[in-house]
Design brief:
Number of strands: 4
Order of helices and strands: EEHHHHHHHEEH
Distance between the termini: 66 Å
Number of helices: 8
Shape: elongated
Helix content: 55-70%
Strand content: 5-15%
Largest sheet: 2 strands, antiparallel
Structural class: mainly alpha
Strand order of the largest sheet: 1-2
Length: 188
């Protein structure tokens, strides 16, 4: 199609003369990719394939990537011993921190078990101990006592006796602590 050679410092180009139809063929007119529309981009983003689904699951649930490679023979004894020692520490500590938060001790057991279980499934670090903290428990306790003081749950009895409705107070304080926790999580 093109011939060029140097002769006496000149460059000569010889090209065939193209009409419009031949130019379309040579230039491959119309085959240039156009920018995809927003709808096409959304379809591509939401398209699901097995490798893509696997990649998303491995990103969001890291246990699926490391558990099949876990060496039970080498690591299980050490992991069970360390898990028991951490559990022995977390259980009474969680119960005490629940009292600091002005809640019943059983809620400290929940806060000792469930965060560790959730982190086991969704966490990325292999060496971590998740649990409650004394300062946070005291801060939650100040909020629960301020929003649900004992004076709001006094029940008048007969002959001038007054009693405290402990179950209603505790359930309202649990609602306050849960709401505070969810709201803090949203902020973070």
């Amino acid at each position: 199609m093109e011939d060029g050679h140097l002769s006496l410092g000149k460059y000569i180009v010889r090209r065939e003369v193209l009409d419009e139809s031949r130019l379309d063929v040579v230039a491959q007119k119309g085959t240039r990719p156009s920018k995809p529309t927003v709808c096409e981009q959304l379809k591509e983003m939401l398209r699901c394939s097995v490798p893509r689904l696997k990649g998303i699951l491995l990103i969001w649930i890291p246990i699926l990537s490391w558990l099949p490679k876990y060496s039970f023979r080498e690591n299980i004894i050490g992991d069970v011993i360390s898990g028991c020692s951490v559990g022995i520490m977390h259980l009474p500590q969680g119960m005490a921190y629940a009292l600091l938060a002005s809640l019943r001790p059983v809620f400290g057991l929940y806060s000792s078990l469930y965060p560790v279980l959730v982190y086991f499934i969704f966490g990325t670090s292999r060496h971590i101990s998740v649990g409650t903290f004394a300062v946070i428990s005291i801060m939650v306790g100040s909020v629960t006592e301020r929003l649900a003081p004992d004076s709001n749950f006094i029940v008048n009895g007969t002959n001038g006796t007054e009693s405290l409705n402990v179950s209603e107070r505790d359930s309202y304080r649990v609602q306050i602590a849960c709401s505070l926790t969810v709201l803090t999580g949203i902020f973070q």
